[in-house]
Amino acid sequence: MPKIVAERSDVIPSLAEIFREYGFDGASLSTITEKTGLGKGSLYHFFPGGKEEMAAAVLGEIDEWFATQVFEPLRSADDPRSAITSMCSSVAGYFRSGRRVCLIGAFALDNVRNRFSDRVRDYFAEWRGALASALERAGCPERDALALAEETVVAVQGALVLARALDEPEVFERTLERIQSRLIAATGGDEQR
Amino acid sequence: MPKIVAERSDVIPSLAEIFREYGFDGASLSTITEKTGLGKGSLYHFFPGGKEEMAAAVLGEIDEWFATQVFEPLRSADDPRSAITSMCSSVAGYFRSGRRVCLIGAFALDNVRNRFSDRVRDYFAEWRGALASALERAGCPERDALALAEETVVAVQGALVLARALDEPEVFERTLERIQSRLIAATGGDEQR
DNA sequence: GTCTATATGGAGATAGAC
DNA sequence: GTCTATCTCCATATAGAC
Fold first, then answer.
1. Which of A22, A53, A188, B133 could covalently link to A26 via disulfide, CB atoms 3.0 to 4.6 Å apart?
2. What is the tens place of the pLDDT at every residue in A78-92?
3. Number of domains composing chain A
4. With 80 as the cut, is the pLDDT of residue B5 above it?
5. Residue B193: inside a domain, yes or no?
6. Which of B162, B174, B178 lies nearest to residue A153, judging by beta carbons?
7. Which domain holds residue A162?
8. Mean pLDDT of A136-141
9. How close B101 gets to chain A, by Cα (Å)?
10. What is the CATH number of the domain that holds A78?
């Protein structure tokens, strides 16, 4: 039985989709009221800091999702190899196989970056670091691990740009498959089958 | 002896830098007048269509630069291998080794994409197609050529996102070196030295 | 071509009733 | 917690003198 009365946390997913679709500057308060179904009164009740606080809340939720679903498993799983393949499917799911853009990547290229630069930087640094850690524990030499982790994050972000630009989600799917084979190969290939 | 009176084409490079720095929505007309040193009168004299026409002019100039400096050489050079290495250095120079973002990539992730979707799509499609053509002519099988061309454009765009997000231009430099070795390897490696 | 002044709309944000 | 009404400001764009 869903509550009629909204809670702050109920609104954040809608806000995320809105910012993804319109960008930070492009998402006006009227767009937001329309798409969320909430009036400005409610919006400012939940987010007294206005649009900036809304975006910060969205970024916070994204951070948290990746931290628990992706970064922590990569850093602490007993089996780093399976954490890596699991990362690939989580990421494919999260970005809807290339049909959804990365809000943090979009913010990174925008001028709003300056308002959220710490969060933007930490997100990518965490991802790269956590994946490198998993690769190392899976037997990859440190130098290779760092390079391959960076290559992976670069490929994911680039694929999202291209998939959106060309309106070809398959670019993302192909990229993710390619990178996954490379990650598997670097952690000992098929030998453990 | 520089002319005092501005010409339309003189303004476009400044506009490009402004859109790169502030984004389309983030670049207000007051920002633009301030940074270009031109009043609104002059701006609307050159670009009667306003900001949208300014952005279109910038995109047109970028298109043209890439067409003549990168795409055409890739498609028609007698020596496709050297056209490929030359692409890498042109691209490194153009993006200032990762300190400059790709405006078209940024537009692709933004909602302004909808206003310029044809140009955005064509730019990336052209790049991927031209590079694939050069790879094929350099002896790469068609399937591999397409995949590697796509991987290259993905890597460049992703590296620009990450370099900007992390404030680490080296990410771009490392990526470009890695991709260049891969391109060279795919066209026969060092054997022709 | 370039400027200043101005029109007009929509932006983000607030107030206060319910 | 949600609404409507309202405020202020700055956005884009225009007009017309020089």
1. A22
2. 999 999 999 999 999
3. 1
4. no
5. no
6. B162
7. 59-192
8. 97
9. 7
10. 1.10.357.10
